[in-house]
Amino acid sequence: MTVDSALRSPIMHSPSTKDVKALRFIEEMTRNVDFVQKKVIREILRRNSETEYLKRFGLKGFTDRKAFKTKVPVVTYDDLKPEIQRIANGDRSMILSSHPITEFLTSSGTSAGERKLMPTIEEDMDRRQLLYSLLMPVMNLYVPGLDKGKALYFLFVKTESKTPGGLPARPVLTSYYKSEQFKRRPYDPYNVYTSPNEAILCPDSSQSMYTQMLCGLLMRHEVLRLGAVFASGLLRAIGFLQTNWKELANDISTGTLSSRISDPAIKESMSKILTKPDQELADFITSVCGQDNNWEGIITKIWPNTKYLDVIVTGAMAQYIPMLEYYSGGLPMACTMYASSESYFGINLKPMCKPSEVSYTIMPNMAYFEFLPHEVPTGKSELVELADVEVGKEYELVITTYAGLNRYRVGDILQVTGFYNSAPQFKFVRRKNVLLSIESDKTDEAELQKAVENASVLLGEQGTRVIEYTSYAETKTIPGHYVIYWELLVKDQTNPPNDEVMARCCLEMEESLNSVYRQSRVADKSIGPLEIRVVKNGTFEELMDYAISRGASINQYKVPRCVSFTPIMELLDSRVVSTHFSPALPHWSPERRR
Ligand code: AMP
């Protein structure tokens, strides 16, 4: 059933006026992709062709897309860093955008170890809001009755900082939850959350999580959908319940809030929610959560009316699907949107489809989109328009935004799966150059290499060297953590590195990783201590033999710097001689290092 046919179908429940308006908007956007894209780029150029950046490329006064495409280069973040830095330092002249940059959104993508800063202008909030407003009308076509209950969403704000020039720098969702649009959102029966704003907005993630879980438990029969932005967040909430259910049950049985909650705004709002003891509910939670070895289907046991999980399980998050299936007893997982700090991109028009079939339809009004054919040497290939991409092909997403990113490589690889009207639909294939990811952290090969180098210096005193390494994102435990396999060349066999030295190596690796990793370790506690597993000598040669036996070429064989294939994991794990964990937290502060 498409949005269009649903609009006309006599068998579907009749959508509300608000939903009809949203669905019509989707129809209009997807039928006129190229027309809308032309309009968007014309409008962006009308505003921004007088900016310092576009004038530099001779675009002064031009508003047509052909001139734009021939004159303006395709760039990466590092190309734009000087301009971004000037704006961050307080230069208010028209550098990238004719509209004032109001804040920087801190991407989970990093450059030189620090989060990338994405410029944004005031009206971008409305564009994001518009995309959000399309989600429920689409969902309502597939799941009726969502106005009859609530959504238990685990939503969090993160620490924010200010640039030297005084602009806020914070993640896009923190910016959104703190906005008036979110805080003063009008009542909408389809978007009633169990979590009070005060809990979502509490900067202490532990108090925030505790309160959100408590509210979810108190309103367990009203909960119709359960979610977090990414799968890792929802699993973290389950992990939190695992360690804290006794305290939560105690609050419910006494009708009082735990002393761990010190935030005055939360206390005030909870005084209206946790009003009286409920021994029956406390007993129920104790009986269900107390079965340590039987948490299978816990979500449906506690929240029996849940119709689906609202959580992104595409891209790096696909690794969490089996665990979510386990805890939810196989509930559908809806991946509703595809977005980033640079711009929000699109929505899933079939949100109840299987995770492996998810495709996102880019909304052509959000930004100007171009597509760089993937795996074709740059320079030899033309960028393709949104309306002209071909089914089956893979592309890297390139965007031009109202806020002043011009032909910017997002770093996402997408594959065209089909069309809805004239709008192409994309499967998220992967993020370029990402080796390891537990939640929003994205560690690339160069970062891992540097971390191994820095850590192995600590072995140098004993003349021991790391001769090979590979890595693995261990996500079966909550929180997940990085595992690094090391094969060592120990000079003095009688004196191999002891656990203390190896543990210091673990910590040194963590210190060397990017700020998103360290923030997740320190502030969010969403990544556990890094682990080094030392393997027996000759293990990496066996790994090569295995790859060659499966058809790899001897000449071209390279040690994979990240592994996930079960037989390889089994081989590595069967050769482990010792394991070591980081003994402390690495350094992290909201301030940037540079
Ligand atoms: P950030 O800039 O930190 O907001 O991260 C944005 C990135 O997260 C995108 O460029 C994608 O790589 C990834 N992402 C966002 N939405 C999805 C999705 N629905 N599926 C897979 N990856 C996603």
Poorly predicted regions: none
Helix/strand class: alpha+beta
Bound compounds, each kind once, are:
adenosine monophosphate
The residue-averaged pLDDT reads 94
Largest sheet, order of strands side by side?
A: 9-10-11-16-15-14-12-13
Strand-residue fraction?
Answer: 15-25%
Helix content: 25-40%
Largest sheet: 8 strands, antiparallel
Q: How much is the radius of gyration in Å? A: 25 Å
Keywords: Ligase
GO molecular function: acid-amino acid ligase activity
Domain GH3 middle: 360-431
Family: Belongs to the IAA-amido conjugating enzyme family.
Could you characterize the architecture of this molecule?
- Residues 360-431 form the GH3 middle domain.
- This is GH3 family.
- The protein has 594 residues and is of the alpha+beta class.
- 37% of the residues lie in helices and 20% in strands.
- It contains 21 helices and 20 strands.
- The strands form four sheets. An eight-stranded antiparallel sheet has the order 9-10-11-16-15-14-12-13.
- β17 and β18 (481-489) form a beta hairpin.
- α11 (205-218) crosses α12 (231-254) and α17 runs antiparallel to α18.
- The longest helix has 24 residues, at 231-254.
- It is globular.
- The termini are far apart.
- The mean pLDDT is 94.
- Bound molecules: adenosine monophosphate.
